[in-house]
Amino acid sequence: QVQLVESGGGSVQPGGSLRLSCAASGIDFRQRYMGWYRQAPGKEREIVASIYWPSGTTHVEEAVKGRFTISRDSAENTVYLQMNNLKPEDTAVYYCNVRRILRHEDYWGQGTQVTVSY
Prior knowledge:
- By secondary structure, this protein is mainly β.
- The chain is built from no helices and eleven strands.
- The chain has strands at about 5, 10, 20-25, 30-40, 45-50, 55-60, 70-75, 80-85, 90-100, 105-110, 110-115.
- Strands 2, 4, 5, 6, 9, 10 and 11 form a seven-stranded mixed sheet that branches. The protein has a four-stranded antiparallel sheet with strand order 1-3-8-7, with no helix packed on it.
- It is globular, with a radius of gyration of 14 Å.
- It starts with a strand and ends with a strand.
- The mean pLDDT is about 95.
């Protein structure tokens, strides 16, 4: 059973930084993406960044490119999202995601709130 445990959300002022962590357990498949999505109030959930696990290739959405970095600890099955120069429009619930490629299955964490305001 796949479990994703997120941590690291919180409240910061614009220009601040946060680091999100997502520890995965119960994963017995290698062909997957791990990444982060976010959902702001009244908006659809959107992808922020992802890692193709077999190679470590990363992708970061244009809206956050240059400010957010996704990385991983393969040994710990953990993915991180370093968020710098945060803006009010980054305010959202951030969700960790595992996508099992060959079976088109998605697994989600419980979500962690990120609030950017004065």
